[in-house]
Amino acid sequence: IKKRVQLALGRRVHTQSDHVIVCGLGRLGHLVAEELLARNERVLVIEQNEDNGTLEYLRALGADVYIGDARSPRVLQESGVRRAKALYSLVANDFVNLEIGLNARSFDPDLRLVLRIFDESMARRIQEHLDIHLSNSMSAIADERFVESAIGPADSPR
Question: The pTM is what?
């Protein structure tokens, strides 16, 4: 019964606007959604796994949840992507994130997109050629932070 209730709650058309959609509720998705909620943003999480333990926690913080595959145009439409202010795609797969971003962009060409892209050269090309506002290579960010922790920022004297 609990599973059916979760699915019913998570597969409904959402009518909010000016909200932020977070696709993928792994470790990074959880942290991003939590931070957005702390900043008083309206958050809608799209997650495939209805058994993800973080769903109830984020619901308790005020997030809405849609159970489904964010690659599906129907899921994006029912999540109110046309009325959203931004979409984060934080799945652990570059091509899935790109597909989600392009599908979302087809609904709203001006939608602010943040895609998790591991391949740094792919991230650069996406940003340059597809007009994605931000696409970050996590390894590039981590590399820079590791270096800074050891020797300081690039502009600091040694």
Answer: 0.79
Q: Where is 26: in which H helix or E strand?
A: none
- The residue among 79, 139, 85 whose CA lies nearest residue 114 is 85
SS (H, E, C) 28-48: HHHHHHHHHHHCCCCEEEEEC
Closest CA to 17 of 92, 111, 141: 111
Using CA atoms, how far apart are residues 39 and 89, in angstroms rounded to an integer? Answer: 19
pLDDT tens readout for residues 95-147? 999 999 999 999 999 999 888 888 778 778 887 777 776 556 555 555 555 55
CB-based contact 63:30 (threshold 8 Å): no
